[in-house]
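MOLECULE: protein
FOLLOWS: sequence and fold
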Amino acid sequence: MDGLLVALIVVMTVVTVLALAAVARRLLNLRFGVVRTVAAGVVGFLMSQPIVGAFIPPDGVESIPYSVRFWVIVLSVITAVLAAMVVLAVAEALAPTGSIPGPVEAVRGLRRRVLRTRRYLHIMRIAVRHGLGPYLRGSGTGSGAGTGTTAERLARSLREALEEGGVTFVKLGQILSTRRDLLPPEFIDELGRLRDNVAPAPWPEVERTLAAELGAPVDEVFAAFDREPLAAASIAQVHAARLRSGEDVVVKVRRPGIEDVVARDLDIVDRLARTIATRTRWGHAIGVRELADGFAEALREELDFRVEADNMVAVAAASAAADGGDGGAPGVRVPAPHLELCSRRVLVMERLSGTSLAAAGDVIARLGLDPGELAGRLLRSLLRQIMVDGVFHADPHPGNVLLLDDGRLALLDFGSVGRLDVALREALRRLLLALDRGDPLAVTDVLLEIAARPEEIDQERLERALGQFLARHLGAGQTPGVRMFTDLFRIVAAYGLSVPAEVAAVFRALATVEGALASLSPGFDIVAEARAFGDAYLAERLGPEAAREMATRELLALLPMLRRLPRRVDRILSAAEHGRFAVNVRLLADERDRGHVAAMLHQVLITVLAATGGLMAVLLLGIDSGPRMTDAVGLYEFLGYNLLVISMILALRVLAGIFRRSGGA
């Protein structure tokens, strides 16, 4: 019998605790985790005992009338609920929901935290060993203070540290080497030497990856597969193979385990970016956190070979559109992916037979090809991808350009592809046109349109700076080159403008292809060829057929409005003539705006009610006279306690909502 009584008491206690927790959470109108909700119920239950005891007179509960006993129990329950609400509100203020992982997630994340910390300490040791510690602490100047050997030494230390850091940091350095608007020339030149060639992964690991991604053993999918890779890099390696159909293909396989390494390194990059942005002026000025976010997104895309396959299809479409579209020059080949065999970790594509452009001098001479014509073909294809189609190869260095055996060119490695929307392409065309005309006012207008501008900017000084820039690079007797964009970026950075990553990718591609063009045809005039492409493109857009098609589209779009316009004008004039003309404006027409205002009014109303209830409770508790409920408790005092509890419940509801929004912000 005693055991049954104990079990009954335990069950009733658990039910009471859960009921208190549920009521407290419901009154706060917020969702809380199970652990903190149950803890709040336990505290409320424990608080209910002394609260009830405070209302019981010394001679026992029998001296309290039955009607009063009921209200004492009600008040004690409400106060216990209030205690549970206080626990939840305080917990939300100190540790907002989601800021502390649950027990299961904490156990799962412990190993990841240990590995990340170990890697973080390793990267910090590399940075300190190469003399970069002061710059991470904020005591360095951050941009290679000084000139000559000082800047060169710092740039070399940064390159060596990034190389030792591994794949993610090598990729970061390669991206930074294209940002001439952010880094001095010494850093650009030094980081441009970064290479990520590494030893190939063992064949058994590669074979397991292929079998897992293809859903069958390698020998069943391919008629032949070369176990020795054609090339190996930090993210993937490439093998030659032959399909069952007899077609020669190239298989790109992601290195096993690279995703976990990149994930940890990206977390470290993010932490370092936050530290640098917080502790240094130069880090905040160049937007190092935004740069890190963009780099992380691009690297995650590069790890997914399905994205690369889609990029190949898109660029191939752009290249096909270029065939015969710019003076009859053929476009540039793009290997076709076998989409049915492509996955996150495996990319199977057509194998093209040719020679890398970096070593194609003898082949060009043997085939009797014109290097200048090949260079112009490559540049026109890239410009059409940028200006017309809006999807372009963002890393066309000589190693990614192939001279095929039939004399055509081909682009390889589409892990890095840029995309421009219609508005940005149009703005970029206006920018290049304004640069070609040497019009500083037009250049200023376009830059302020495409770049994120600060709140205060001296536009007149910016126009003068751009005028000097145009006179220096595009004046009489000057031979402009792609490197003039470096000076343009310097002006942009000096006036606090932020070049969009998409535009930076365009000039990165142009600066990269300049090296490919120089190796193919020394002395090739890239600016003159770009002008010729621009003239041909404008002639194509302004030709009779194109103009007729454009006019037809615009007329079809305007026709419905033109048909309704006379009737609308007649109605407006008639209403104005008879004094019935009026303008209706709908405030808060958006449902989200109405919901926001309603929520604000709701919070204000609850706050007013809480303050009013609290004030009335204080007034009632200050009254000594009046009817008595017991010898120790008066009616006004009892009502005051109830109003005080209600006031605190309302106040806690408001505060918990504020803490929840602050924690999630």
Remarks:
- The radius of gyration is 36 Å.
- Residues 591-664 form one domain.
- Confidence is low (pLDDT under 50) at residues 142-146, 324-329.
